[in-house]
Amino acid sequence: MASVVVVGSINLDIVATASRLPTPGAKVTDASLTRHPGGGAANQALAARRLGADVSLMGRVGSDPAADAALALLRESKVDLSGVVAVPDEATGVALIAVAESGENQIVVAPEANLRLISENLQIPAADALIGEHLAPGDAVARAIATFNGFTCVVLATASEVDETVLRDADLIVVNESEAAWYSESLALRDGLVAKTFGASGAALYRGSEELARASSPAVAAIDTTGAGDAFAAALTVALVEGQSYAAALRFACAAGAAATERHGAQPSLPTRDEVQRLLREYD
């Protein structure tokens, strides 16, 4: 069993599902409302756990009832939460998510307690791999990468400035198409791996300008893409530390990402290893 530690955000997702997403200044009034656990790092931790890894999560929640809701599925799946601290007089992070019938989404995040994840207080446990979410505040991920003795993955998750040591030192960087364009030159100069995701079209794995592998995504009836990128990143990390080839690991990750779009909610949709393997067999 691979062991993985994840550093980053923990949120409660408030999800409005409607026939379509609003354009700027417009209003959509046919939505239904649900609440689910979320946050990039929390999603990645649960995804890795459901894929069979032994997982520890490091993050911050508030001292409010939302914290229990945000951690519920992680506790149920026996993710190690000893590195999750409830911050007094702070609220748990919240993500406001609008989802269209097509599965596309819009997300606004209020990080709240996540901003109190301070690098000096991080005691990173030993593990085979570390996944760091770029949205973690300050230099928390950079410090984790610098001090961790094992395979390191960073999920950039947004096109914005990032510590250059993260881009230089991480063994694997995961980006989507817009993030790949934003970080283009920095990624091209890296010695490590870069995984670029292309939504329903699949993903490719690079080292510098060399393409090491490419995989298409299994065709599924997508109803919510929230969390698909987190499932992909966790699956790719787990597969690589298990020793799967680049091609096999990328196929596994694409299948995990696709499977995560078949149900509503970021964490409720995250697939088990059996579900991913079944999708791969059907795809073959």
TrEMBL record:
Binding site for ATP: 176, 197-202, 229-230
Catalytic reaction list: D-ribose + ATP = D-ribose 5-phosphate + ADP + H(+)
Predominant location: cytoplasm
Cofactor details (free text): Requires a divalent cation, most likely magnesium in vivo, as an electrophilic catalyst to aid phosphoryl group transfer. It is the chelate of the metal and the nucleotide that is the actual substrate.
PROSITE patterns given in the database record: PFKB_KINASES_2
Protein's UniProt keywords contain Electron transport: no
EC identifiers of the protein: 2.7.1.15
Activity: how regulated: Activated by a monovalent cation that binds near, but not in, the active site. The most likely occupant of the site in vivo is potassium. Ion binding induces a conformational change that may alter substrate affinity.
Name of the protein: Ribokinase
Record gene name: rbsK
